[in-house]
Design goal:
The chain is an alpha/beta fold. It has helices spanning about 15-25, 40-50, 65-80, 105-130, 150-170, 190-200, 205-210, 215-225, 235-245, 250-270, and strands spanning about 5-10, 30-35, 55-60, 85, 135-140, 180-185, 230-235. Helix 2 links the parallel strand 2 and strand 3.
Amino acid sequence: MQIAGNVFVVTGAGNGIGRRVALELVARGGIVAGVDRDPDGLATTRSRSADPERFSPHVLDIADTAAVDAFPDEVTAAHGRVDGLFNIAGISQEFETVAGVTDARIEQIMRVNFFGTVAMTRAFLPLLEARPEAVIMNTSSLSAMVPYPGAAIYGASKAAVALFSYGLTQDLRGSSSVTVTTVIPGTVWTDLVRNSSQTLGTPEALAKGFAMKPEKAAHRMVEATMKGRSRVVIGKDAHFFGGARRISSRLADRLSYVQVGRFVYGRNRKPAPTVD
């Protein structure tokens, strides 16, 4: 599917990977309806785009199902049609154990990462199926392949996204013009990763050198989606852990534990009770 002249909805377009995907699409002649909760972030993305007239900002919380249901009318009023949906918006878990994370935080992570992706997909699917060809891209995570210490809820939400996306591919196979791409990115240098490295005490230069550049990740995500690939793994660490898991799931789990486990569980471990 070509990009030039087509209309794409991109969630999380106010920052990080979502911003880079939006900029990539506009630079290649696409029209982008950028979605984010942060109006300032959207304004920055628009100002940095190759042609600001081909980027329309839309403030929306994808966890608000009623607002999501009404959103396709807003996009069609602005652009007349929709040819693609890039589900990128998501929130992280801040190195919290299952026992330590609050019920409210669990619900928030699942509502944004999983239910928000499902709601956006269901809202736009009828419009996409009305097009001669269309695309959907859903963003999972390395954390869905390998369990990371302090990220059980986040990993579960992204694993749910992956299985939802694979199932959607099956639903549409052979009966629809819409292709679905599931993206599994590893570490990409965004504000989220920068904040995580600071929390872990990792030198920024080391963390940045380890992570993939966001513009490179965005390019690969767009390329895979436009080619109709069903699944793509992005980043050296994602490929490494994917290979390790094929050899031994225990090995992959131990490696992820070594990476951040001592910090997470050391920080959350309660001191032993004293005996008088």
